[in-house]
Amino acid sequence: MEVRCGEQLLILDGGTGLRPLGETLRREGVRRAMFLFSHVHWDHIQGFPFFLPAFDRKATFEILAGEELLPSLDLVLTRQMTPPNFPIRLQDMGATFSFHPVQPGQEIVRDEVRIEALSLRHPSANYGYRIQYRDSALVYATDTEHPPNGVDPHLAAFSRGADLLIYDAQFTPEEYDGSSDGRPRRGWGHSTPEDGARLAAESQVRCLALFHHDPSHDDETIRQMELQAQAIFPHSLAAHEGLALDLGEGAPCARCPIP
Question: How does pLDDT run across 65-111, given as a tens digit for each residue?
């Protein structure tokens, strides 16, 4: 996922989408960006070896992650590219990388962009990010779930008033509680569209994007989950590959019926 704030480019995590993003950035001549890693589970890092701008010796990338992940993040990225897994080592890619730890509540400022981190509820260390640019704010909160007694109060406060909340909605309610197959997913660090909608309503965000879809779900299942969220929070949509949302100057979020 990419976030463009004027001249600043932010890249959220490093899944397989990094390959087509890298091709686009190379065509555009982009040689500078900041990575914000939530955590290092395989689906969030496996695109990194195929990110073409990283092979450009004139390119520079800042890589930020929770302090629990550094220095392990650079080691994880290095190890996944160690032969025989991959023919090119991280240190041979060409670009200049700088790794920076982030602490909960810490604010990172780059020109007009302000970034704040929050520790999320996941089996391993995992961070969400709030990105503020001028009068617009985006919250990225994937791979997390609420406590059993309701909405996560820390995440609700963190998301308060954001223009866009990108939230984990991997499971249907029936999958989450196990009523569909006798295999509950509670405690796995993922959530449901209803939980995302309740969080969005409590946080008074403008738009909710359901994210981190389960790969076993087809388009119709995702559509039904989108409808479930909209029944609670009408300004909800299911994120999909290629979706672009403009948050600037009161612009509506794609299909969301935001005035």
Answer: 988 777 778 888 888 998 888 999 888 999 999 999 898 888 999 99
Strands 113-119 and 107-110: antiparallel
* Three-state DSSP state, 222: helix
Residue 252 included in any domain: no
Identify the CATH number of the domain in which residue 230 sits. Answer: 3.60.15.10
5-16 confidence digits (pLDDT tens): 999 999 999 999
139 and 238 part of one domain: yes
Residue 218 · residue 246 · CB < 8 Å: no
Most confident of the ranges 9-23, 114-128, 143-157: 9-23
Final residue belonging to a domain, choices 84, 103, 122: 103
Sequential DSSP letters for 82-97: STTS-SS-GGGS-SEE
